[in-house]
């Protein structure tokens, strides 16, 4: 029994990595290890498979000594096997309070940011987390309960950007059997202790009821998921074809050809998915679709766009930005919110800046020479006629040309925001710093501004 | 409040019928009414909307007096409103026992067969049942739990053939509010008293838990369902395109072009859906897909077909029918099972036969002159060289030509079974009677045989 469980798990693990093309044997991987059962098993499988990896542990400092002991446990575990180990600690509660996030959201953001920075620093290919099949099942049930299209039914993705989940093939029971058979030591997982009421309800009450109907629930879901993922990717392909077939862009407006929409099978749903990007919701999309066969030229408004109907086209135009007023930023401001965008402003050291240069680059973070700025700074939407000197260039460039070169899509163009000092543009927010304000050899004080989207309004 | 609930329900009902194109105001409808809350509400809405309909009630005789009182209740309800009423009674338990069906399956089969016969007799367009949104939600959760592709996630269809479900927009709570506000009388629904453990578990335990997460669960699901149905019908369209693109038929074999499968997005899943028809299961399909890029010419076997791989094609051929042995049928046999097909054999009256001629025609039922038969009868698969005299014709016809004319697809052709008397073919089962055995003016005794598929083996 023992050998079977252990060999079977390793075999399934390698098969899954191969089938899902998660990574190749030469890839190097940052392995997220909390010290809980799931991540201890993932670590053990990585070790057995002799993959190239560094263990990364986050101490969220949420449970006092216990948190420190978790970190120590993972450190010792790595030391005993000669596995490279990195750790960090976060002031999670302060961060959550400052950014008005739930503890869970704050931990999530801190964790993934650090993993990504570490991956870049080490020049590794991937970050692996220990999400398993039951996590995925809970996600599907949660999405279904809260409302979803096809993408919410496919579960947790095995690969998304740099993140991979090589344990998604395994059920919670598989993991527990493996831990028991191999007699692995582990620590009570801090994420399980989290207060996620909805997920716990699904895990502890709903799933056990469903297992009364089908004791083999997890493996059935693995097959459901495989099928739904196939259908979802097929649908995404069709959706791209639809968008291409209906769209014409002209004069800062998007024209959607009504005849094509009407003749497309399930055109109503394809239209809904298309209009979502422009901020129109389910009910508006339904009403817009119904209006296609009517003669009236009613206008519809989302938070960001206006849609009008003429004879042959639906015409989508960005809303005039009159609602976006200029906001002044006093010296010493630490955080500020502006139409779904949150800025975190801090003075930082030359060392931090050099460290940043050596590791991650992130266009959502601005580093400027603090002495070049005149307060109050101002934040406002981009206007026709604006220009700046893009970092690394010598001449002026019109913002409009800059956006065209960057191929920023129409519905995001008008949402571009600027940070200004007097009348000069310091930063095309989230996109490019101005040459005149950059940090140089002579810089004495550095101001760091991190722009984060807090709502969909600016997400496009 | 009262007026709002009532008017709101009627409005939603009419909107739903219109949006789903269920029927037009001139259509005539058989309305299935058990006397329970759901069907009483459906009846009331049909009455308020002044549609053309006849109420049909089935007495399954499962609960003694209660069943009779249900029938009487519905009869009186119709009489008081001047609504045309039809009723029938079934010996459900005997039927279930004789046909080895669960009580629930037996009731279902009897019910839908009678509704359809009634619809044809009255020359009506549709049969309406009172399934509601919560029934659909339970179906989705049940399918998800037991394993499904996209088609199990779309819930109960509002329209399928002649069956329509105009109450699918309403939640159980909507129905209960309407009953309360209109003070409608109703009888405890016999279907609710059924012993369907799985459905009751979902209804009484799982759904209430999900409603703790989302109290508006039903309306959220209505939107999920709308989206999934759009995706499903889009997928079915793509699947047809796929089948067309990969298939070539020749010499009784089907050739599937490997290159096209490999280049098709999500080709593995499209192949699985295609091979399902030929009896290949999930695991076989996966293995077949994996074999596409290998050079070996391994063969795969389903219950009915063999799949082999050559350089450019997957080749599917029907299996030689050596496994299907001839079965002898003695006089007096009432039921018999033969490779997924169940035959019910009974002596019947001239009146039954005349009644049948006046109402429904069903190619799954054979009526023959009993005196023309020589026992033991025999049942066997069709073979090359077989011929018969199709009912209504004067000359012989080869079975092979008959199947070609009827455009029976390849994978079903070899599954065609024959009922024989001595060496003569009496019935191409489920397809056509032989002229020599037909019921005539001089017939004294009639044998009736009903062929029902009990498993997928013969379903194709």
TrEMBL record, chains A, B:
It catalyses: cytidine(34) in tRNA(Ile2) + L-lysine + ATP = lysidine(34) in tRNA(Ile2) + AMP + diphosphate + H(+). SUPFAM superfamilies: Adenine nucleotide alpha hydrolases-like, PheT/TilS domain. One of its GO terms (molecular function) is tRNA(Ile)-lysidine synthase activity. Its EC number is 6.3.4.19. SMART domains: TilS_C. It is an enzyme of class 6 (ligase). InterPro entries: Lysidine-tRNA-synth_C, Phe-tRNA_synthase-like_B3/B4, Rossmann-like_a/b/a_fold, TilS/TtcA_N, tRNA_Ile_lys_synt, tRNA_Ile_lys_synt_N. Residues 377-449 form the Lysidine-tRNA(Ile) synthetase C-terminal domain. GO terms for biological process: tRNA modification. Keywords: ATP-binding, Cytoplasm, Ligase, Nucleotide-binding, tRNA processing. It holds the Pfam family ATP_bind_3. It is found in: Cytoplasm. ATP binds at residues 34-39. One of its GO terms (cellular component) is cytoplasm. Coiled coil: none annotated. Ligates lysine onto the cytidine present at position 34 of the AUA codon-specific tRNA(Ile) that contains the anticodon CAU, in an ATP-dependent manner. Cytidine is converted to lysidine, thus changing the amino acid specificity of the tRNA from methionine to isoleucine. The N-terminal region contains the highly conserved SGGXDS motif, predicted to be a P-loop motif involved in ATP binding. Belongs to the tRNA(Ile)-lysidine synthase family. This is tRNA(Ile)-lysidine synthase. It comes from Emticicia agri. The lineage of its organism: Bacteria, Pseudomonadati, Bacteroidota, Cytophagia, Cytophagales.
